[in-house]
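REQUEST FORM: STRUCTURE PREDICTION
Request ID: SP-0412
Submitted by: Lab K.M.
Chain count: 1
Length (residues): 275
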Amino acid sequence: MKLRAFLTLCLILAICSFPICAHPATLILYDNFNSSVINPDKWDGYESNNNCGVTREAVREIESNALRMSVHGYGIICTEGSCQASGGDRLRIKNGSGIIAIKANITVTTALCTKPDTTSTPSKIRAGIGGRWFNSSKSTSGDATGDIGVDIRLERQSGMGSKDLNVIGVIYKCMDSGCNNSSSPVNPSTVIVGTAKVGKKVSLSVTWNKAKKRFIFQQDKNSPVYLSYTGISDSHLPGTDNKRLTVDVNVPNCLSEPCYDAQVNALFDNVYIGR
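STATUS: Completed
RESULT:
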């Protein structure tokens, strides 16, 4: 009997050494998009755009039992400073309060990044999940200043292979009420989680482990990757309740026509959340 108990204990420890135990929260299915339209009781959609460029096209729709999100952004002529066009398409979880984990399947089907020869700044596309998890100093409803955001993203930038994607985890601090500007609150603020390919489905997750002051990123069944935020207060709710699915583009400025562009198209399905 003692041998059996010992072997049972060893089995439990062995199971929990695998990545499946990376989630301290119980995940439940939030949406599998097996409907004809996006459920308005679960989601809010919106677009974002800075003053340096224009998001010409943005799409959110159900396609073949998945959510399709797409954004196509263009740079503009900009001769002052290092102007960079950025734009995004978002689908925000309604009532995201208390969520500590998000998981989803994502397939990037288009990852176009063009780059001006006159600048060293690359064009970028991203598709991912995440949001704002807590505020580092206060809690003022509707004001993102001081909110700490964390995402896991599929990313490609100009200069990479046309089918190559990096999987990264990133933490940022909102510097104004709309989070139009952000800073890096810790060093490192970005971690490499893995790699992927355009056209291939991947499972991504991000989990907030408040007890250990860190975030856990995971791709498929690979080993989890951790990003700590020691030294940052996490006792305040975020000013903006914003857990979401996202696609984004960044395009450097151009000095003359024609300007350059970036486009991302991605499919999302089987979104899980944990509270």
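NOTES: The helical segments are 2-15.
Reviewed by: T.R.
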